[in-house]
Amino acid sequence: METPAIAAIILAAGSSSRFGRPKQSVVLAGETLLERAARIAAEAGLAPVIVVLKPELDFGYALQQLGCLVVLNDRAAEGIASSIRYGIRTAKLVKTTGVILMTCDQVTLTPAHLRSLIADPNRPTGSGYAGKTGIPAYFPASSFDALDKLQGDTGARDLLTTAHSVPAEALTLDIDTEADLHRARTLIEPAAPKPRKLVKPPQALTPTKQMK
After folding, report:
1. Which end of the chain, N or C, is less packed with Cβ atoms under 10 Å?
2. Is there a cis peptide before residue 4, judged by omega within 30 degrees of 0?
């Protein structure tokens, strides 16, 4: 299933304060969490795959080799909303008709679930788990202006209160602690196939004043 007009925005500029080290570079089943998220987004047919990083995280080159658009967020300390704004402004530049916001630490995420979020491309749709609707979440272009106005560290939570929800209880497992990582490795690594490397032309995007 190809959906070239719908982008993935991987929000990966966080400090991993609870984990104690950059979880973006943690290896699970032969690939980093960031590479895993980018692969799953691409396998879902999302394009481009936009990855928002803070400048000091040195993952840009590897992600470009996977065909990702890498955007550096020099305002990451303001909270996750700043990464959403950078991602949305990039999506506008490349003229996508919708985006899926996602992170790299929900390791049970599948391409099938991402595709289910865009069953109705005109409807904001989130993932249902732990009694709430959260990310990964799909937003059509009609939501871009609201996303571009977000502030602080609450993300798109308020925009999902009335959104359609696709059940995905497995997404309650995310990597916030070493115990979470141990659980993920126990669950995923014994049966994991060797990761398939994506082959796409490298792309890069340097932040501009307009994106700030």
Report:
1. N
2. no
Question: Count of CB atoms within 10 A of residue 119's CB?
Answer: 11
Answer yes or no: is 207 within a domain: no
| Parallel/antiparallel/unpaired status of strands 164-167 and 49-53 | unpaired
Q: Does a structural domain hold residue 208? A: no
Q: Do 99 and 6 contact (CB within 8 A), yes or no?
A: yes
Domains in the chain, number: 1
Residue 163 lies in a domain: yes
pLDDT surpasses 80 at 204: no
Q: How far is CA 147 from CA 78, 154, 160, in A?
A: 15, 12, 11
Query: Which of 150, 153, 155, 123 minimizes the C-alpha distance to 138?
Result: 123
Per-residue pLDDT of 34-83, as tens digits, reads 999 999 999 999 999 999 998 887 776 778 778 899 999 999 999 999 99
Q: Are 112 and 179 contacting, i.e. CB atoms less than 8 angstroms apart?
A: no
* Contact yes or no for 132/162 (Cβ under 8 A): no
Structural domain span for residue 147: 6-196
Q: How far apart are CA 206 and CA 130, in angstroms?
A: 37
CATH code for the domain in which residue 83 is found: 3.90.550.10
Peptide bond connecting 48 to the previous residue in cis, omega within 30 degrees of 0: yes
